[in-house]
């Protein structure tokens, strides 16, 4: 049963009277003597009142010595005490003593008032033994016992826990008015920033107010955790992808170093591999399932990038290695390719039917998509009825002249009755050298042939040089290689330009044939304008069988930017 205020007052008065009696009793004992006429031992001081004995003399055998004032010496932290010659600043000393006193007063707990009603009480158990740190920092009246018994409400949280568990931001936590916090030395390292501690129930109240409710906080927490998990998985997948890429490149480099190196004769452009054999030009390396890499690339003379027919044929070789060989194809060139970096071909099967298989091939170089091809593989059906165009009437290949021989004749005899300039002579020399080293032989059958209905055609005999009896799938890959020769370039001659610059999309439909024999390539352009041209082509065997139909759309621009101001023949833009 608690005491009444009068009873508490009486207890305090009795305590003061008892202390006064005890003090009088001690004073009486110290002033009286015992039976021997001496003061009691308990009241005798260690130093007597009348010390008249002389000071002890120092033994002369110890030698001389110096006397130091230790109050004026400082510790050098190296095992020595050094004299400080600086004069003591009395004002500074007083300020330091005052600061020390204030620090001592801050650490002291305020006294308990005699009137218990005037003492602050714990808001949980009404005890007057409150924790003054909680009161001064957080403004929370709670005793030390309640802080230990109710950690779910009065425990302290670090700033990291507030940010991770309650999704609070750093500016919110640094606001002393909104979120009071206690600063303590960092336990991990003294040089780190001070640790910020927050009261749990105050953090929860602020978080419920910010997010609306505890359920809303849980929803936001789950969303962020899912987003963090997706980001982590994406980063892991990206790292795994890069690791696989580096592994494939390492394996490819080892195989590349160990394989046979083709050696060719000297050339003016010595930094580029030549392709005297069609098998070398079409060769690809299988890295994984549906993944292939080019082994050598070729850039024609005065061209911007890799020969497009080689990219088409290598993509077709990659697709043929994944399905049964019989096909028609359609492809797009997105940008030119560089011979300095291998091209990676990725084959994807789009549709698997009983008679047809559709595949797509993507060519990637330096992380960029440069080429897309869609090819359709079909089982042969020779029993179906057939119909084709008749082969044009041209001279047989034995009576036609090779392109390199024509270029050499131009260099000896001149072009169109005029001697060649130094620049044009160098052009014809480069083209003749390239044609001799090319795996495809080309003879001109007819150039700029105009029919009775006004259609202009270009016709060439083409043949793969010195190839064995390859199977039909590889023969079709060779045909896709030569199908890009002279194709879009003929559009410039049809519309009156001199050279070609780039290509767009290609289409090719193929039947059975042999590229080791001469094939007649007939080319025509039904429409050219606005900087673009459409080319159609037919490939006939010597016997007149139409084995392939090609179509290509490409960029065909003259080196002009507006209406022509003279009647001179425009030149193609290089």
From TrEMBL:
Q: Name one GO molecular function term.
A: zinc ion binding
Keywords, sorted A to Z: DNA damage, DNA repair, DNA-binding, Metal-binding, Nucleus, Zinc, Zinc-finger
- Polar residues composition-biased segments: 29-52
Q: Which residues form the Acyl-CoA thioesterase-like C-terminal domain?
A: 457-556
PANTHER family recorded: DNA REPAIR PROTEIN COMPLEMENTING XP-A CELLS
Say which family it is in.
Belongs to the XPA family.
What's the protein name? DNA repair protein RAD14
């Amino acid at each position: 049963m608690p005491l009444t205020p009068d009873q508490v007052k009486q207890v305090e008065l009795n305590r003061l009277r008892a202390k006064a009696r005890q003090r009088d009793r001690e004073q009486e004992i110290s002033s009286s003597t015992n039976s021997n006429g001496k003061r009691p031992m308990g009241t005798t001081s260690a130093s007597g009142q009348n010390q008249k004995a002389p000071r002890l003399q120092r033994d002369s055998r110890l030698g001389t010595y110096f006397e130091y004032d230790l109050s004026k010496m400082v510790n050098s932290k190296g095992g020595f005490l050094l004299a400080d010659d600086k004069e003591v600043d009395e004002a500074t000393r007083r300020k330091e003593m005052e600061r020390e006193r204030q620090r001592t007063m801050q650490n002291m707990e305020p006294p308990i008032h005699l009137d218990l009603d005037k003492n602050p009480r714990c808001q949980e158990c009404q005890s007057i033994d409150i924790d003054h740190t909680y009161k001064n920092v957080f403004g929370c009246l709670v005793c030390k016992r309640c802080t230990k018994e109710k950690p779910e409400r009065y425990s302290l949280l670090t700033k990291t826990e507030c940010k991770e568990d309650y999704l609070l931001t750093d500016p919110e936590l640094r606001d002393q008015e909104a979120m009071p916090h206690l600063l303590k030395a960092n336990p991990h390292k003294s040089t780190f920033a001070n640790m910020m501690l927050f009261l749990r129930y105050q953090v929860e109240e602020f978080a419920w107010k910010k997010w609306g409710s505890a359920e809303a906080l849980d929803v936001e927490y789950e969303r962020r955790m899912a987003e963090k998990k997706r980001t982590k998985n994406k980063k892991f997948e990206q790292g795994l992808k890069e690791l696989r890429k580096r592994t494939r490149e390492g394996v490819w480099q080892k195989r590349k170093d160990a394989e046979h190196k083709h050696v060719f004769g000297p050339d003016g452009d010595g930094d580029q591999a030549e392709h005297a054999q069609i098998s070398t030009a079409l060769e690809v390396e299988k890295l994984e399932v549906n993944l292939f890499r080019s082994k050598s690339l070729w850039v024609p003379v005065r061209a911007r990038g890799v020969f497009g027919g080689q990219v088409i044929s290598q993509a077709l070789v990659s697709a043929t290695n994944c399905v049964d060989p019989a096909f028609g194809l359609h492809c797009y060139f997105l940008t030119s390719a560089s011979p300095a970096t291998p091209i990676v071909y990725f084959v994807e099967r789009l549709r698997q039917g009983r008679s047809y298989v559709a595949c797509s091939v993507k060519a990637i170089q330096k992380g960029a998509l440069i080429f897309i091809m869609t090819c359709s593989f079909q089982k042969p059906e020779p029993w179906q009825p057939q119909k084709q165009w008749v082969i044009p009437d041209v001279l047989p290949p034995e009576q036609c002249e090779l392109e390199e021989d024509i270029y050499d004749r131009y260099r000896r005899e001149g072009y169109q009755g005029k001697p060649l300039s130094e620049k044009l002579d160098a052009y014809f020399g480069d083209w003749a050298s390239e044609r001799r080293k090319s795996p495809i032989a080309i003879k001109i059958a007819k150039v700029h042939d105009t029919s009775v209905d006004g259609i202009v055609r270009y016709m060439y005999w083409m043949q793969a040089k010195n190839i064995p009896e390859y199977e039909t799938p590889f023969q079709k890959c060779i045909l896709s290689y030569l199908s890009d020769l002279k194709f879009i370039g003929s559009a410039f001659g049809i519309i009156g330009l001199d050279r070609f610059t780039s290509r767009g999309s290609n289409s090719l439909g193929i039947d059975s044939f042999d590229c080791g024999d001469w094939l007649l390539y007939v080319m025509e352009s039904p429409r050219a304008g606005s900087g673009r041209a459409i080319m159609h082509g037919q490939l006939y065997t010597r016997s007149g069988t139409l084995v392939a139909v090609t179509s290509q759309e490409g960029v065909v621009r003259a080196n002009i930017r507006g209406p022509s101001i003279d009647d001179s023949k425009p030149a193609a833009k290089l």
